[in-house]
Amino acid sequence: xxxxxxxxxxxxxxxxxxxxxxxxxxxxxxxxxSPSTSGRLIVxxxxxxxxxxxxxxxxxxxxxxxxxxxxxxxxxADSERAAEIARRSGIDAGLHLNFTETFSxxxxxxxxxxxxxxxxxxxxxxxLARILYYPGLARSFEYVxxxxxxxxxxxxxADPQRIDGHHHLHLCTNVVRDGLLPAGTVVxxxxxxxxxxxxxxxxLYRRAVxxxxxxxxRLVDYLYNLSPLEPADRLQRIFSLARNSVVELETHPIxxxxxxxxxxxxxxxxxxxxxxxxxFTATFTATHPGMAASR
Length: 295
What we know:
Layout: E1 18-19, E2 40-48, H1 52-63, E3 69-72, H2 79-89, E4 92-97, H3 110-123, E5 132-133, H4 138-156, E6 162-165, H5 173-177, E7 186-187, H6 200-214, E8 222-225, H7 232-241, E9 246-251, H8 256-263, H9 266-270, H10 281-285
Parallel strand pairs: 2-3, 2-9, 3-4, 4-6, 6-7, 8-9
Antiparallel strand pairs: 1-5
Helix pairs in contact: 3-4
């Protein structure tokens, strides 16, 4: 099933935000959102298809098997070529939703650019803009999400079974509250932090969002960024978690330091006997064979 939006679709803007920050003091454990399987380390590269350099550096890492999977951008300069590479090479590609970086492909419908521009102006005003709900932008959010899902289907020949967001904006309140992501998909959770790394309010808000996501989607146990690479014991703690939990390690191979770490053999040397999962989706389909994207 696809969602088709008429190009003459108009939106009446009423940008009055509603604060929806949860004040719950209850903090769920990682087990609340667990895929209930054995430990896995998934290394996922963002921004696949953003431009040729990003795609090529990421592809090099997939060939070396230091990257399990990618998150693909659509309506970007290299989206078409990146999709061809992924399909030819069997690369596990999810959808990397984009609300804030101007679509750079030559085939972007004018209404989509207009809707995204509205979102970009609002979300770019302040780092906390993502936690507010904008009733006047609800149609724009719905349009931009559905257009990217449909374009992913055109490029990859199937609906995405996994969705995350550029700058993690798939977690903004309009997307989560309105249930814009297809039920049953694997969705990226908030970053994981230890007590003391973020304020209590920050951690409780993130956990409240994760709890809501878990009602409709599959989540990994923990999410970390590959950077910073120092101190070295940081990655060792993450690798230790992956022995008994499902851990997603987010990376951006266009970053020279991360690219060097992934391609020089240094990462494989630090893993000891821990192996990197060959792909992302199998972690969930093996445990939940009935999982399917639906709308």
